[in-house]
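<amino_acid_chain>
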Amino acid sequence: MSKRVWTFFCLIVFLSFSLSGCYYFSAKKEIANAEKLLSELKGSGGDKQAPYEYCSAEKFLEASKVEFADGDYKPAKGFAERSKSASEAGLAAVKKK
């Protein structure tokens, strides 16, 4: 194998590992943020006052954790973002009441 092909192969392997690592850490951070917002929503009575938002946030977080456990970090991050959005909407609804 020529040196040029070997260098190209190593570069591709390095980039694939570094990009997958980025998704890993960003998904893990989003899941932690979503858990924090969901606990804030539950603590403020969101499960009673904004049940749709609370249930949505809970299920999106659950789906995010499943995807993360399967190694699918990009969808895990997406579900965690949707969970955060639902929690924020629930917190806004609770504060209105």
Q: What stands out?
A: Residues 20-96 form one domain.
